[in-house]
């Protein structure tokens, strides 16, 4: 049965496979993109500037921030500065994907970087770490598929303006659920669970401390480095520790191929 | 102060620069260089740490960067439901869709 599914997947057209791979993000981008377009419209953006910002910035969090800061008439340099702190975490995404994108051309790297964000990174990271045949080109097309859904939703939102009302906090939970899913599939041993809990507390502490999303960057750097050091020490001094033992997976999904 | 379209365009270009640089620089740096082993081992912990931080931000941190659980009961309960669904089904689509349904229904009840 598994073989049949694999075979029928091979026969699917290429764009269909990319769409399937990116569908969870595509679908959650529709309501969030609409809401974002509506908010940008309310803060004075027209259809063309909405198109421009959704293609060039392509980050839900950043675009919501732009909309809310324009509503409070903050000076331009402060909007851009806040944007810088918000987008700094993408450096971490790039670093953790770098081993899969090693040796690609300059143009490809720039194009890939331009439309990478939290959500399509989540999709691509999972694909790269579970599917050995997944190529950088496919990853780029996954990015562009999510970008297409995001941009179209933004523009429709901008066009319908304030005619409909969307409860943002509820819609935003689609992305929270996506990140929760990503966490759960990566919890492969006790140490990762401990690091995950530690990261949660560090994130709250650093965000309150810095009063900005710079806290996200600091807590991620700290928690991941502690995880890396802890794993190295446990392997060295307690090689039989139960912390590194694999946790059984109830659904029996494929194991990581890159270890 | 009402901004005009020219200012919006400049704002977008500025935002593009600060958004593009952090995305590009690490990928450019490691494009041709050999990536050290310890760096790859460190980077393996980045996704789980970052996603946890994003979830904590979404659920427990207010827009003014204060930790708060006021009115967050629907999201907190729905988060537990999503963790359960993700653990048992391992399906991203089912987790997201049922999570959205859960938070929508809980927001009406709680």
UniProtKB/TrEMBL annotation, chain A:
PANTHER family: INNER MEMBRANE PROTEIN YGAZ. It comes from the Bacteria. Its main location: membrane. This is Branched-chain amino acid ABC transporter. It is found in: Cell membrane. Keywords: Cell membrane, Membrane, Transmembrane, Transmembrane helix, Transport. InterPro entries: Brnchd-chn_aa_trnsp_permease. It comes from Lentilactobacillus fungorum. It is a multi-pass membrane protein.
UniProtKB/TrEMBL annotation, chain B:
The keyword Transmembrane helix applies. The chain crosses the membrane at residues 6-30, 42-61, 76-109. Keywords: Membrane, Transmembrane, Transmembrane helix. This is Branched-chain amino acid transporter. It comes from Lentilactobacillus fungorum.
């Amino acid at each position: 049965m598994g073989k049949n599914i694999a075979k029928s997947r091979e026969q699917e057209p290429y764009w269909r496979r990319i769409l399937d791979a990116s569908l969870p993000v595509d679908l959650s981008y529709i309501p969030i993109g609409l809401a974002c377009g509506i908010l940008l419209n309310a803060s004075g953006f027209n259809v063309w500037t909405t198109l421009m910002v959704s293609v060039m910035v392509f980050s839900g969090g950043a675009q919501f921030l732009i909309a809310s800061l324009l509503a409070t008439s903050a000076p331009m340099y402060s909007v851009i500065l806040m944007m810088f702190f918000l987008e700094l975490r993408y450096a971490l995404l790039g670093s953790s994907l770098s081993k899969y994108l090693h040796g690609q051309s300059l143009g490809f790297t720039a194009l890939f970087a331009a439309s990478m964000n939290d959500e399509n990174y989540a999709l691509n990271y999972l694909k790269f770490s579970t599917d050995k045949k997944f190529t950088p080109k496919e990853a780029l097309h996954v990015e562009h598929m999510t970008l297409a859904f995001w941009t179209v939703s933004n523009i429709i939102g901008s066009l319908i303006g304030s005619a409909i009302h969307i409860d943002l906090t509820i819609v935003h939970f689609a992305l929270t659920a996506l990140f929760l899913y990503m966490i759960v599939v990566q919890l492969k041993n006790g140490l990762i669970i401990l690091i995950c809990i530690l990261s949660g507390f560090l994130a709250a502490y650093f965000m309150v401390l810095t009063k900005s999303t710079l806290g996200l960057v600091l807590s991620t750097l700290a928690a991941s480095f502690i995880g890396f050091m802890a794993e190295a020490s446990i392997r060295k001094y307690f090689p039989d520790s139960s912390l590194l033992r694999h946790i059984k997976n109830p659904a029996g999904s494929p194991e990581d191929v890159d270890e | 102060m009402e901004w005009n379209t020219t200012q919006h365009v400049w704002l977008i270009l500025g935002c593009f620069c600060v958004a593009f640089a952090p995305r590009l620089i690490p990928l450019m740096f490691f494009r041709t260089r050999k990536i050290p082993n310890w760096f790859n081992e460190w980077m393996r912990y980045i996704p789980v740490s970052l996603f946890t931080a994003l979830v904590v931000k979404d659920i427990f941190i207010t827009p003014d960067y204060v930790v708060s659980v006021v009115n967050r009961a629907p999201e907190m309960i729905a988060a537990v439901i999503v963790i359960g669904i993700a653990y048992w089904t391992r399906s991203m689509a089912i987790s997201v869709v049922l999570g959205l349904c859960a938070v929508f229904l809980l927001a009406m009840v709680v």
